[in-house]
Amino acid sequence: MLFETYAILACMAPTAFAIKVRFYRGTGCSGSEIGNGSQDAPPQTCLAVSTTGSFRVTNVPSNKKVRVQGSKRACQGDPAGEWISNGRTEVCFSTVQYRGAAYDIL
Length: 106
Known about the structure:
The protein is mostly beta strands. Helix content is about 10%, strand content about 50%.
């Protein structure tokens, strides 16, 4: 009976984390902020802004493999850049060309 109890508790353990995305007017993820967002443990998320900018992704769990893609067409079309976390917890897509940032857990 103890094994069953522990198995149920392990399945109910919280797995939430909030990856944060911030868009900026300037290069190198600097300048005024033009948009931001975060979401708890999504299978896939895309955030879009109405004007181009650079963007920074933070709060990536070091124990998860996360793929981040930047797009020029607000989360549509082929990605203009891609990053795989591999234990790293943040990245800056530094050129002012992005209108969308998508991430998913691999």
